[in-house]
Design a protein that fits this description.
It contains eight helices and ten strands. Strands 3-4-5-9-8-7-6 form a seven-stranded antiparallel β-sheet.
Length: about 220
């Protein structure tokens, strides 16, 4: 009986130590160490390069793609049991995409709060109209339909930085997807840091608190000097 109790106690101790060894979050910094966030360790990190290819439209072997790789850092996290970068635009499970862009001189001159809103997907009325016209010209069915704005905040930030956080719905295929988009322009106007969270509407409602914690952790880091 004593040996049995000792064995049970040992097993419990090993289990507790194993549990303590599991980090609660994955902590992430971009390539240059300027942007920081954390996601629960239940998310699987993915190679975001296919997302960059899709969003940019550049051929992976082109000079434009090579230049973009120098200026753009990105990563993605998926909570699905079968993680995939395809879940950025439609998933029953939470998905996180983050990117940091070193702006060109032309981009720095054109950046605005509305440009921050439209940095990944068409959000403002003007850009949604342009998107609709471009799709109509091809005769194809639009990927994004039936836009619904849920919330739009201008962020109060330190050191001259400015940003927005926008939540919106899009119908993607047969399902409605909720997107939670945060974009921040640093105080020097050199970089834009973006986080896009999302999943289907019922999933987003169920995980709203978790999404808020992830979005709230998305910050610019003060560099020395």
């Amino acid at each position: 009986m004593t040996k049995t109790r000792a064995l049970i106690a040992l097993m419990v101790t090993v289990t507790l130590l194993s549990a303590c060894g599991q980090p609660e979050f994955t902590y992430v910094r971009d390539r240059d160490g300027t942007t920081y966030f954390k996601v629960p360790s239940s998310f699987k990190q993915l190679d975001a390069n296919p997302i960059e290819v899709y969003l940019s439209g550049d051929h992976p072997s082109s000079a434009a793609a090579a230049l973009r790789a120098q200026r753009v850092w990105s990563t993605a996290f998926d909570q699905s049991a079968d993680p995939s970068v395809d879940h950025l635009l439609g998933s029953k499970d939470p998905f996180v995409y983050a990117t940091v862009h070193q702006l060109t001189e032309e981009q720095r001159d054109a950046v605005s709060l509305n440009r921050l809103r439209d940095f990944v997907l068409p959000v403002t009325e003007q850009v949604r109209e342009i998107y609709a016209q471009q799709v109509a010209a091809t005769g194809e069915t639009p990927v994004f339909r039936n836009f619904e704005l849920l919330d739009d905040q201008v962020l109060s930030l330190d050191d001259g930085a400015k940003g927005v956080r926008v939540r919106f719905n899009y119908q993607v295929g047969a399902d409605v997807q909720t997107f939670d988009h945060t974009a921040i322009l640093d105080g020097k106007g050199d970089t834009v840091s973006v986080m896009l969270l999302g999943c289907q509407v019922t999933c987003y409602r169920r995980h709203a608190g978790e999404f808020d914690k992830i979005a709230s952790s998305f910050k610019l880091l003060r560099m020395p000097g």
